[in-house]
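Example noted here:
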Amino acid sequence: MNKILNQPYQLSEEAIEFYQKNRYIKLKNVLDAETLAYYGEAITKKVNELNSQDKPIDERDTYGKAFLQIFNLWCQDEVCKEFVLSKRLGQIAAELMRADGSRLYHDQALFKEAGGGITPWHADQYYWPLSTDKTITAWIPLQPVPVEMGPLEFSAGSHVIVEGRELAISDDSEQKIAQRLRVTDFKHVAEPYDLGEVSFHSGWVFHRAGANNTDQVRKVMTMIYMDKDMILKEPENENQRKDWEVWCPGAEIGKIIDTHLNPIVYSK
C-alpha cells in the first residue's frame, strides 16, 4: 500500500556509531502517520483475532500482565506481511548491526493493555540460539507513547555486562538486573516516543518497560532481525531449544539459518 516501507532511510555514520556504543537508538520519522494508521489497523485486527488471553489482568503473573504477545503475524495476514518484510526497516537493522544484510528471526506484536504492568529487566538474546551478537529488534509504536503508557527503557551500553544474561523475564530478572545496574554508570533512558519514531536495540542490551497507566492500549509491533549469515548454535538452555524448534524449524547447528520462516529482508 504505502511505498515508504520500501524506500531507503538516510542513516548517518554518527547514528551507527551511537548504536554500536550504546546498543540502542531511537530514530525519528522512520514511518509516517498514514502508514502507521493503515498497517496498525491490520495488526490490531489480527491481534484481537488471535489473542487467547481470557484472564483479568489482576489474576495474571508478571509476564501475563506485561503485554499481550502475538507472534509471526507475517505468516497470518498479507497486509501484516508487507509491514514485517519492509526493506526500509530491514536496511536500518542491517546498517546498525554493520552486517551485509538482515534476516527475519520472527515478529511479535506487544500490546500492553490499559492498566498493564511493567515489563521486567531482561536481555532478549537469552532466548535465542544464535552464534553472534549481530541481532537487533525494531520496536515500532503504532501510536505516540507518553511516559505514562510504558515506553521502552534502556540501560545504554549494558550489553557488556554478562551477569543477568541467564535470566528469563520474571520478577527475579527485574530485581537482580536492577540491582546489578544500580552499581554501574550506564545511563538509563526512558523517554516518550513520537508518532513515527522507532527504536532499535541489540539482543544483549538490558531493557524494560514501565506500566501502562493510561486508559488506552499501548500498541507496539516488533521485528527481530539477525545478520543474514547468522549461524545456529547449540542451544544453551531450554528456551533456546524451543526457539530453534519454533522460529528456525529445520535449521542445522553450525549452518546459516535459512528456513522458510527466516527470509532475508534486506541485502546490500
